[in-house]
Amino acid sequence: MELTLLAILALVVVASIVISKYTDAGGNPYPFNRKDSVFTTVEASFLQLLERAVGDKFKIVSRVKLVDVIECKPGLSKKARRSAITKAQNKQLDYVLVDKSTLNIVAAVDLVNNANKNGHKAQKDWFVSGALESAGIPHIRMKIKSGYKSPEVRAAILFKLGQKPEQTKPVRNRSYKPAVLSPSQAKAASTQLAEI
Description:
By secondary structure, the protein is α+β, with helices and mostly antiparallel strands. The protein has two domains: 31 residues; 126 residues. It is 40% helix and 15% strand. The protein contains six helices and four strands; from the N terminus they run ααβαββαβαα. Strand 2 and strand 3 form a beta hairpin. The radius of gyration is 25 Å and the shape is elongated. The N and C termini lie far apart (74 Å). This is Putative QueD like protein. It holds the Pfam family DUF2726.
């Protein structure tokens, strides 16, 4: 009888310790409030820009776990598979472009902030880039900056995907003379777009 009482007492003590770890000081096991938005201001504005740029061509899925778009190659040992999955589990992609008709994965898009003020990636994550490259998924890293125009973003993304942007026929205006860029101006313009 005494042994049973001691066992019950020990069980109550263990249960109270476990419960205390999952509750706040007020005893609420769910100490949460709703956030105002799913996206930061930068993420929301870039998502809108991305939708204007390629929304007619691709569906855009945001905040996708890396393990949702890649899988281990067959033939790996259990240890190698577990190690690879462990490395990939905590990685997240900002946006994934998906083919509208087939829903196949087309590319991954990550925002890059060199100042790293808003928690965005500052340095290239070589594991993410390598995993995506190994899986055959283009990884597009775009610098966070103001002033992007949707045609620029569209052209940069299609360039990274190896596609030519659709070109509209120019209106014939005999008085129009195209601007001629010097080699240094052309190089600066292409470098600026390549950094996108």
